[in-house]
């Protein structure tokens, strides 16, 4: 154990012990120079009974967390290893776990639990959209911290893992009994995003009932209204769907679950009764039509004609609505009728971008619409893919939106905070690159550039568990230069590519020198880009439209020249040494 008052690594003074688990102790520490508190998790090597599980948990928690950035996740700032222990320095999360809250105050109010559920959907959705996706696997009240400002932080990534696309099942089964999904116990397939949806459903059950999920003798999560009849049947149905034993019967994404929680009241009994009445009226007229002697073929033709007309009327009617929510809902209704057509998707995205931003709420809504299951059992996106041309066009526009327009909303001020989603953008650009319909077109060349850059952003500088770099800096540079020499993209993309190449030279020249990249190649590339940028700047219109990009390129170019001199030496190159 660390002694109270002792100093770790010359800067972290141990104040007191704040927690203890089976294999670790957590201390509160103070960095007196920075006047900031941290949590230090001590894991002793001599206390490890299962070395494989220990290594997986420790590596997962440190390697995963240090590469993540989300308001509901703690950050790891330091890892200190000695002969007998590991010390992991991370954010100190002030507050109490939701498990402590349950013990002290009992079942939590339904509206509060639903709000927490949406917040947890957001952070799980962030993890699932990482590249590769991260599956948390251990959602439960004791792993959720409630901070004094009312927000949540998800802790303890010891059971988390990266999703392996071609693996049939997990190597090691981890999770907490009662909350864990059936597939976490092995032999039932690999854990994926739907596993986290199960554990979140079990957690919501516990929070709203204060009953431990999966109690004997049945070991199943039952209806919450059996515990408290005043609870919403809509929320009950959501929790039951989350915790289906078959992953295919659960919500298929956190975006879909988020939307369901946002509209839980629509699933209550009154809503269902109203829907049944509507369905009865529809069936009555359908039977009356059939009874009128319309043939199957003629009826099918008429159905398709009316379906098309209704789709067109929804799209046309959307622009007459007064609020953004009404407009988006109208487009969603059109998509539910004909998910294979692109017009409503495009119009929906354009509506979201009217203010210049694609914010968090719009993003979740859009993802839900794409992930929604159509009448034929496929998702809207799967149906949309049958229209390859329209799908490619939409993928390109959505990729641009994530690259240039995605923003978070500051919870305190309500203002937008820029946060580019380059990884997610790259996935949509890759759909364009994979499309035969896009080849030979300008957008195909543009998509190649963005897909390549976005695909590298999350992997540069990352070291795998064997100690090897996932991607060499020079490999990325050569790919960028190949795009620079061989593709015909528009002016915006061309300038972005120029800026990216010069930025990489400015920040990674030392890596290039170590990896054997010739100095002459860097200098020739710099000269070619500077000449191209000079020509672009000479056009008054371009200079006005792309002034910011051009200014950054000029700034990076000066830094890049200094970096080349620093990495390769002051003698032997075209650039003189400068102070």
Explain this structure:
- With 579 residues, the chain is of the alpha+beta class.
- It has four domains: 7-91, Phosphorylase Kinase, domain 1 (2-Layer Sandwich); 96-262, Transferase(Phosphotransferase), domain 1 (Orthogonal Bundle); 307-422; 459-568, no CATH class.
- The chain is built from 20 helices and 14 strands.
- It has helices spanning 51-65, 98-105, 110-128, 193-209, 233-242, 254-262, 269-291, 296-318, 324-337, 343-352, 360-371, 380-384, 388-405, 422-433, 442-457, 473-486, 491-514, 519-538, 540-545, 547-568; strands at residues 7-8, 12-20, 24-31, 36-44, 76-81, 85-91, 96-97, 134-135, 144-146, 152-154, 161-162, 358-359, 406-409, 416-418.
- The chain is flat and about 80 Å long.
- The two termini are 50 Å apart.
- Mean pLDDT is 78; it is low at 166-173, 297-308 and 462-469.
Task: Describe the secondary-structure layout.
Blueprint: E1 7-8, E2 12-20, E3 24-31, E4 36-44, H1 51-65, E5 76-81, E6 85-91, E7 96-97, H2 98-105, H3 110-128, E8 134-135, E9 144-146, E10 152-154, E11 161-162, H4 193-209, H5 233-242, H6 254-262, H7 269-291, H8 296-318, H9 324-337, H10 343-352, E12 358-359, H11 360-371, H12 380-384, H13 388-405, E13 406-409, E14 416-418, H14 422-433, H15 442-457, H16 473-486, H17 491-514, H18 519-538, H19 540-545, H20 547-568
Parallel strand pairs: 12-13
Antiparallel strand pairs: 1-2, 2-3, 3-4, 4-6, 5-6, 7-9, 8-11, 9-10, 13-14
